[in-house]
Amino acid sequence: MDVSIREKKQSEQIVTLIVSGEVDAFTAPQLREKLMPLCQKMREVHLNLSQVDYMDSTALGVLIGAYKQLRSRKGRLVLTGMTPRLKRLFRITGLTEVIDIEEDGA
């Protein structure tokens, strides 16, 4: 399956990426291509993951890289709309303690 990534600018310094499909070793590079430039110029990046069916360790690596890039610039990565399956993945890996996760999927 493919991944689809749409960008929705919230303000001059806040952007939301709406991700859908599967984010795995094959599609994670597409997410990285879209996400990393935003992490270099935006103060806050929100990822709406409500339409993500599957995510593997490669995708987690992309998110950790984005988190580190934003944090180094005093920015913030926020994940929203996580399914119970994704929440479990983040809880098991300990990422719920590091990355901001909001219940709202907007």
TrEMBL record:
Top-rank lineage group of the source organism: Bacteria
TM stretches of this protein: none
InterPro entries: Anti-sigma_ant (IPR003658), STAS_dom (IPR002645), STAS_dom_sf (IPR036513)
CDD domains: STAS_anti-anti-sigma_factors
Keyword terms of this UniProt record: Phosphoprotein
Keyword Amino-acid biosynthesis: no
Keyword check for Phosphoprotein: yes
Occurrences of domain STAS (ranges): 4-106
Signal peptide start-end: none
PANTHER family: ANTI-SIGMA FACTOR ANTAGONIST TM_1081-RELATED-RELATED (PTHR33495), ANTI-SIGMA-B FACTOR ANTAGONIST (PTHR33495:SF9)
Purpose of the protein: Positive regulator of sigma-B activity. Non-phosphorylated RsbV binds to RsbW, preventing its association with sigma-B. When phosphorylated, releases RsbW, which is then free to complex with and inactivate sigma-B.
Similarity-based family: Belongs to the anti-sigma-factor antagonist family.
Protein name: Anti-sigma factor antagonist
Organism expressing this protein natively: Kroppenstedtia guangzhouensis
